[in-house]
From TrEMBL:
<feature type="domain" description="Thioredoxin">
    <location>
        <begin position="16"/>
        <end position="94"/>
    </location>
</feature>
<dbReference type="InterPro" id="IPR036249">
    <property type="entry name" value="Thioredoxin-like_sf"/>
</dbReference>
<dbReference type="Pfam" id="PF00085">
    <property type="entry name" value="Thioredoxin"/>
</dbReference>
<dbReference type="InterPro" id="IPR013766">
    <property type="entry name" value="Thioredoxin_domain"/>
</dbReference>
<protein>
    <submittedName>
        <fullName>Thioredoxin family protein</fullName>
    </submittedName>
</protein>
Amino acid sequence: MHTDIITQIDSPEMLESLLTEHAAVLLLFGAPDCGVCQTLKPRIAEMLAQAFPQMRMAYIDCQAQGEIAASRNVFALPVVECVFYGKTFGRFSKVFSLADIRGALARPYGLIVTE
C-alpha cells in the first residue's frame, strides 16, 4: 500500500508551499467519517505510485481544515483536484471513478515528465 506518499495538509501555508514546490499535485478533500473518502485515499495513492510516480498527493481533512476547504470551494465530499503548476486541470466531486482521474492526469502529466 502506498499511503506513505500522502501528505497530510495541516495549514493553508503548508498547502501553498506544496503547490509552489511541486509541478504536479493531486488534492483529495475528505473527512474521517466519509467512507467513500477513506476508501478512495489508498486507491488513488496506489494509482499515482504506479502510473504517475512524480505526482504528489495531499489529503485535506475538511473537518479540521474548514478554512482551506472553503477557500478552494469544497462544500461536498469527496473532491479531487488535479493541479499542475498551480493551476487546476481537473476537478471531480461526489460521483467519479479512478478512470476519470487517470484520464484527467494523463495528458498534462505526460507533458511535465518530458521536461
